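QA checklist item 7 of 12: single-chain prediction sanity check.
[x] sequence parsed
[x] length recorded as 266
[x] structure emitted
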Amino acid sequence: MEKIKLNIKIFFEGAYLSYVGLFRWLRPATYFATLVFSPLTQMLFFVLIGTYADGSSHAYFYVIGNALMNAAMSGIYGVTMSIGGERWSGTLPYLFGAPANRMSLFIGRAFMHILNGMVGVVTGLLWGWLLFNMDYSATSPWALFLTILVTTFSTAGLGLLMGCIGLITRNVMFVNNTVYFILLLFSGANLELSSLPVWMQVVSKFLPLTRGIASARLIIAGHSLAEVGSLLLEELAIGTFYALLGYTLFRWFEFVAKKRGTLEVF
């Protein structure tokens, strides 16, 4: 029991400290502006272009898609930097040398970013309501909440994997940007999946966000949680797979680094 309590403490303390360490240099006003206005800028860009091409009646498609992309903003950029940034910040030897449960340390790096991503998605949906008259009257709040939670977790799972890859690359931001724009293109956030080439449709099935965005659109349109349950389970499975793969790589990198005596260069 004491060991479980210790692991839980490590999980939450590690989650909080890694998150604070990532954003400590920001002033509160700058941090708040990032949370509030970052979802707005991307949404305005794609919604205005999309409605110009398809008409204002399709604004909901772009609002929901880009609101859910905020999950990827936190899940990819935030989580990747929390893991991959350990090397360039000089804290990797302490992380590998700590006698703490590795799973608690690793998964804890994503916890605060999952919450951050959920706030970003809700903020995006609120902007859609304020600026584009989005109608959420047919939406089940709990179903939408669960969809946002699962989708944000799924993108964070991919972020954990990319963070491990960031440990062995020169430029973590290159990894971030590449993965984020792949999701933007393949997830169906701004393009109907049916309009994509067949090979892109196949790739999209193995990425997070794809089913989460589809589920959110259905729920906001009035569908029940039972109707999107299979999509959410698949989204959850994809996120879990990426997180476990990332953890496996993390432990392997730790083993190789200790064996070679190169904790900061693999």
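[x] summary fact logged: Residues 2-260 form one domain.
[ ] second reviewer sign-off
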